[in-house]
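To make the argument concrete, we let one protein speak, a sequence paired with a row of structure tokens, as a model reads it:
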Amino acid sequence: MSQPVPVPRVVADTPLDATIEGLLRGRVEVVALDSVRPEGSAPVEADGLYTYGHPTIDGALLDRIKGVKVISNYGVGVDHIRLADAEARGIPVGNTPGVLESTTADLGLALLLASARRIVEGDRYARSPEFVRYDPGYMLGREVHGKTLGIIGMGQIGARVARRAIAFEMTVLYHNRHRRKEVEAALAPSIAHAGLDDLLARSDYVMLCTPLTDETRGLIGEQTLALMKPSATLINIARGAVVDTEALARALLDGRIAAAALDVTDPEPLPRDHPLLTLPQVVITPHLGSATAETRRRMAEVSVENLMAGLRGEPLVHPVTR
């Protein structure tokens, strides 16, 4: 009688979403990441790593997990994975591009509009006992149409943000490591490339759509915030660490910029007593960029496809390259 073939063991930061659990059920044995992290705990044997949130995956951790053939990430951003460490150990890394760009761009525009028209403040006021009569002079917001949006990072998400902004009759400036002439041609005449300082000085709204890299970490800090208009709004749908959080808080408290709309923060979440959480001109969402049922389902499918391909020793559907 033949022995049953053992299923691969996969280390993951649990708990996982129910959709992911369903896709993995019967195909792998899931081992909780927390069980292999403590200092002094014995190394474990596992065939793969699955990152659901943003746990730090570095060489020290990989050396504690013997036999890893693949790292599969739920999402596009892989700044929490030390790619050089994985590469040095011959471990391919997969992510989920082409799945969440439009959904994240939708949220970017939603944050811009919510901040400009004071939607969150208005909702709170409309529910409060203070709202007893209509007054056309209160809670005035800022217009969006006819204004300039500066986009930092013109990748797939940035290009979709630009298209949506132009539909709202905005002019778009963008700054990117490489000029995107094909995007300019497609969206002309409402878009133009600009240097970073010029973009910050001219934009009414600045939206961050760039990945987190050594070059972009802390990109928005004291000096760059000082270039923005006092009436400007900063919107971050990238990564929290692209912004110096304390510098942003000071700029808002001092009135050096008008508002901020943040889907991501550094740290994430912010300490519950952080001043940014007390400011009415700040809108914060809990990292909802790709949070629709349709997109999260597809992210789960693609990430599991990457994982299973790597476990079989096959090329990943979407490998990450440095």
User: Anything to note?
Assistant: Residues 9-99+294-311 form a domain with the Rossmann fold fold (CATH 3.40.50.720). The mean pLDDT is 96. Residues 249 and 274 are 9 Å apart (CA to CA).
